[in-house]
């Protein structure tokens, strides 16, 4: 592997490294070097050189150790060399997606006039804090703090107030009763009228009939919930054509999930999702000819179970694999290459 310095790497019009070309170039890309490695030892050496070349800054030691551990896990499982190549390619594509995202954030901040120190790295951490998964808990903590502060202030201002006890009224004083006064009062008081008793023959008043109970309410079933579709980056298969006349085909993968929260969770794992997709392609689709419809149906059948192993939950309900030329063919064209046409991003 040639020791090409970073200044010689291709650049985008924005002045950042074109990581797509660095990794995916058919002649000199890192993924192509992996595809040409004939043995596990050559794969280990190639991937180790790539990792050491990409992570040279102070503080990258932890990330380098993590990536090399993942590399050993991939190569430590006895399998065919093509399966190992696919696993190592997926690991390198995780690095590629991370570098593309950092370059995008850098360009956006540069255009907005923000001062950027790419070596310090603290501005990248601010971008992580602006994600909804982080902002929502922070906002909830802030609201709870303000509520507690207001409650404490109200308690401190109203704690000394004591409601006065009601004053009991003195009983009215009446003159002492005498025999003469009692007789006079009795003569002036008319006898009370005795209410006429109800005749035994008179029938009791009719009671109103109780309201007849109504029938059970009609329950209208809720309308079916439309799944959320997720578009990923265009997939090329096979990665390296073994025939001089047979060209690789391009596929669009559309993932269906139940709601928007599941879509966000899937996009957090998009490098791992792409890795599992390429492993499934290698397992089902042939490399020496175009895939048949039955093979695509089998691939779509096994993909939900394979992808749900990443999330440890049944988030993915259906996966559609569409060949280029299909009217439904549509892919994500911008980083992070995980978009949904059903809802604005």
From TrEMBL:
<keyword id="KW-0472">Membrane</keyword>
<protein>
    <submittedName>
        <fullName>Uncharacterized protein</fullName>
    </submittedName>
</protein>
<keyword id="KW-1133">Transmembrane helix</keyword>
<keyword id="KW-0812">Transmembrane</keyword>
<feature type="compositionally biased region" description="Low complexity">
    <location>
        <begin position="172"/>
        <end position="213"/>
    </location>
</feature>
<feature type="transmembrane region" description="Helical">
    <location>
        <begin position="134"/>
        <end position="154"/>
    </location>
</feature>
<feature type="region of interest" description="Disordered">
    <location>
        <begin position="172"/>
        <end position="225"/>
    </location>
</feature>
<feature type="compositionally biased region" description="Pro residues">
    <location>
        <begin position="214"/>
        <end position="225"/>
    </location>
</feature>
